[in-house]
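haha ok so turns out i had the wrong file open the whole time. this is the CORRECT one, sorry everyone. sequence first:
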Amino acid sequence: MSIAIVTGASSGMGREFVYQISKKYKTIDEIWVIARRLDKLEELSKDIANVKIKALKYDVSNDADMIRFKMLLMQENPQVRVLVNSAGYGIIGKFEEIGTDNVDMCKVNCVGLTKMIDMVIPYMTCNRGNIWNIASSAAFMPQPSFATYAATKSYVLSLSRALNKELKSKNITVTAVCPGPVKTEFFDRAELHHSAKFYKKLGMAKPDKVVELALKDGYHGKAVSVYGFTMKAFRILSKILPHEFMLKFIN
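then structure:
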């Protein structure tokens, strides 16, 4: 049985990945969708008719849930064709006012993602495999008042680029997806303490376009997928200009 696994599938980018994978990957027999909100996963399963959906109510930051998921893999012994790590969140605000969410962001965005990759790789025994890790353009440089989130996404970007090299011998491509602001539920939670800067909401990308490019870039073996001219330019500038100089404008 060939499967795809998508975390954070209840909304946003994760949900969009499920839609597009179900249409474009004809050899996948089943998609395992993972999130904390089972009702949203069940709604998703009703929307997709051409491939079987297995809804799994797991929290990637919960050790007990991850043990249960590992046991499920051992029992089912599937061939994993695709893994999408979309579970994650960010909170806007200064480090000290965000409090325990700083640690929780690390658990979800970094630890949970790393555990998923570690558990799934042994089952990626198809002729070809793809891993998509949702990072962010925030990964390109430090982000005051978004410090922990940006740092976690820098981790995701660095890990993805390294694994893309390491796993070539297994014919597995690892792609970090680094969009700018995307029109999803992300900001509903991110703006718990403060609103996002106005320029971040100008021209927000559509999730279907970001995912469409990500799937294409992953197919062609790219380690990084960046949607939109503005974010591609930002990535280049963050490589050329000193970060201290750029931080004067961001802050």
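The mean pLDDT is 91.
again sry for the mixup
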